[in-house]
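Reminder: ligand-aware prediction takes two inputs, not one.
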Amino acid sequence: MKSRIDRCDRCVGELTAGQTTLEIWQAEELLVIRDVPADVCPQCDEAYISAAVSEQLDHFLSEYHQHRPERYLAVPQFSLAQVTEG
Ligand SMILES: [Zn+2]
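Here is what comes back for the chain with zinc ion:
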């Protein structure tokens, strides 16, 4: 996770306070965490999370099995063979 800055280091867009959704792989599980406070780039959608929030996320990820997910999502999966067959 990146530290807090005023401008996007990808496209130099001016960051605004907002929220983002994180997708994090933990071993074989994909976790989605929504409503994460972040500074968001309006140009490229890159999100920057504060050190404090990053620490909270690290703590949550160390014990997420103790929490009941608010819901489960069905995620479609494809192979590259399907992509290249047009
Ligand atoms: Zn940007």
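The CA atoms of residues 19 and 35 lie 5 Å apart. The radius of gyration is 16 Å. We will return to this case in the review session.
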